[in-house]
Amino acid sequence: MDCHVTKEDCLKRHEELIEKLDGIERRLFVDNGTPSIQTRLERHDLVIRALLWVVSVVAGTAIAGAVSACVMMIKFLSKV
Q: pTM of the entire structure?
């Protein structure tokens, strides 16, 4: 048995491992030409986060507007 590993052996093994990793990555993100479940879940998560951000901005604006309107109404009524 040969106990020495040559640079060529290392390069060959490296190429084999890279091919296997590429295959695994393709299977993780694409199944038979369609996005995998992991990719779909990731996209859904991004959409949910975007919607949550929009809703929080709208709610914050509405609350700030309501408080501002109340303050203005109190000032107006105090003058009358």
A: 0.52
